[in-house]
């Protein structure tokens, strides 16, 4: 009896002991932190909602501890997002292994700007605008004020 062997894809993104957090765990943790901050939840409140300490949540957000499938599911339920949300915008395996530290810093800087209080307040105020037409015009105004006039002309 001959068994057919299935060829597995290479595990480019697996971390080995001592190499630091896995890039996927870092990405998932960053998405967790982004959603938590957008909802205005503290680490303590979210931890209580899913039955973990805020210290454990910190480790998840840094990527230093891996989130189990069941915990990720619980977090998605509490945060009101599908599980796939945590993997959105994840770079391909080739990009993860080829990424230089400078590129990582720019992604970190972008994330930190999204987590600023001013940004969060702006996003919350924007989504409180109930009329879709007014919300679209507000969005266009902000793009114009930010210097994105070319994108406005193309629309």
Automatic annotation (TrEMBL):
State the Gene Ontology terms under molecular function.
DNA binding; DNA-binding transcription factor activity
User: For the HTH cro/C1-type domain, which residue ranges apply?
Assistant: 32-86
The identity of this protein, by name, is: Helix-turn-helix transcriptional regulator
Return the Pfam families for the record. HTH_3
Source organism (scientific name):
Azospirillum oryzae
Q: Which domain of life is it from?
A: Bacteria
Report the GO terms under cellular component: cytosol
Q: Which UniProt keywords apply?
A: DNA-binding
Question: Secretion signal: which residues?
Answer: none
Q: Does the keyword Disulfide bond apply?
A: no
- Which region ranges are annotated with the description Disordered? 1-22
């Amino acid at each position: 009896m001959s068994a057919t062997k299935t060829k597995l894809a290479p595990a480019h993104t697996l971390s080995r002991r001592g190499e630091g957090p896995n890039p996927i765990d870092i990405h998932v943790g960053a998405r967790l932190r982004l959603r938590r901050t957008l909802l205005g939840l503290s680490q303590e409140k979210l931890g209580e909602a899913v039955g973990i300490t805020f210290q454990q949540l910190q480790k998840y957000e840094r990527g230093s501890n891996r989130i189990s499938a069941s915990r990720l599911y619980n977090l998605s339920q509490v945060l009101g997002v599908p599980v796939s949300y945590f993997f959105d915008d994840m770079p391909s395996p080739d990009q993860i292994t080829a990424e230089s530290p400078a590129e990582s810093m720019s992604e970190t800087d972008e994330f930190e700007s999204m987590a600023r209080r001013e940004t969060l307040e702006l996003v919350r105020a924007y989504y409180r605008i109930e009329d879709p037409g007014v919300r679209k015009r507000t969005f266009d105004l902000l793009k114009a004020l930010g210097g994105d006039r070319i994108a406005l002309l193309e629309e």
